[in-house]
Design goal:
By secondary structure, the chain is an alpha/beta fold. The chain has a single domain, classed as TIM Barrel (Alpha-Beta Barrel). It is built from 11 helices and 8 strands. Strands 1-2-3-4-5-6-7-8 form an 8-stranded parallel barrel, surrounded by 7 helices. Helix 2 crosses helix 4 and helix 5 crosses helix 6. The chain is globular and about 65 Å long.
Length: 271
């Protein structure tokens, strides 16, 4: 296990070095202090404070309802628990689309109020102006192409994106645009593995996949999915590394039994 306090701080430059060296980047989401501290201590490279907090923390059906204030709250909690990882925060829906001045203001608020290290936003050509404006303030930007959950009502489904050549070509073009604009990395979500591999080979910046195969520069998963806390989500790309749903419900059940039976607390557990 990596001792976070003794390890080198991960920066955007470190991620670039990892790509150049062929070292895969490990990225997970986190939304609170306690889990962020554990994930960081384990040696994760990047923590994404994702707008998926809308789903896993607040119970919404989509990522759309979460607000900028709520994202700043989650990001602030995560940053306080992190010593090593690069912390990237999603710009939530409605805070950057179609208005580059608002995009800059949103990104500045996240950086100033949470202490995070970078922001992430979804889209290609249609958000290039916003990306450029954010970068002028010295704020690192991570892009996101493929399945973009903030556009779920436009897509109408969570199926694999860019299977048809026209959409695949747009994605390849958008990836190059994001690199040219100055993004330090790109997330590719739920696209054919062959296309993702081609994109990763065509750009100099790291490409992080989620449901995009193994021939990219790193992987990201939602923490609550990979730990088995959320058991309703079963995409092909998800590998569960624990069954915390069973562990937690079992522990709570035993606690309830002990309280009701009078076994807890015993004489050694009181003053």
């Amino acid at each position: 296990m990596t001792q976070a306090g003794k390890a080198k701080r991960v920066t955007t430059h470190v991620l670039q070095e990892m790509k150049a060296a062929g070292e895969n980047i490990a990225m997970l989401t986190a939304y609170d202090y306690s889990l962020a501290r554990l994930v960081d201590h384990a040696g994760i490279d990047v923590i994404l404070v994702g707008d998926s907090a809308s789903n896993v923390m607040a119970g919404h059906e989509t990522t759309l309802p979460i607000t900028l204030d709520q994202m700043i709250y989650h990001a602030s909690s995560v940053v306080r628990g992190v010593e090593r990882a690069l912390v990237v925060v999603d710009l939530p829906f409605g805070t950057y689309q179609g208005n580059s001045k608002e995009a800059l203001g949103s990104a500045i608020r996240i950086m100033k109020e949470s202490g995070a290290h970078a922001v992430k936003l979804e889209g290609g050509k249609e958000v290039i102006e916003s990306i450029g404006r954010i970068l002028t303030a010295g704020i690192p930007v991570m892009g996101h192409l493929g399945l973009t959950p903030q556009s779920i009502y436009k897509f109408g489904t969570y199926v694999v994106r860019a299977k048809e050549e026209a959409e695949a070509e747009r994605l390849r073009s958008d990836a190059l645009l994001l690199e040219e604009a100055g993004c330090f990395a790109i997330v590719l979500e739920k696209i054919p593995a062959e296309l993702a591999a081609a994109v990763a080979a065509s750009v100099r910046i790291p490409v992080i996949g989620i449901g995009a195969g193994g021939s990219v520069d790193g992987q990201v998963l939602v923490l609550h999915d990979m730990l088995g806390i959320n058991t309703e989500f079963h995409p092909r790309f998800l590998r569960r590394y624990a069954d915390l749903h069973e562990a937690i419900t079992g522990a709570v059940g035993r606690y309830i039994e002990d309280v009701r039976s009078g076994d807890f607390p015993n004489k050694d557990e009181q003053y």
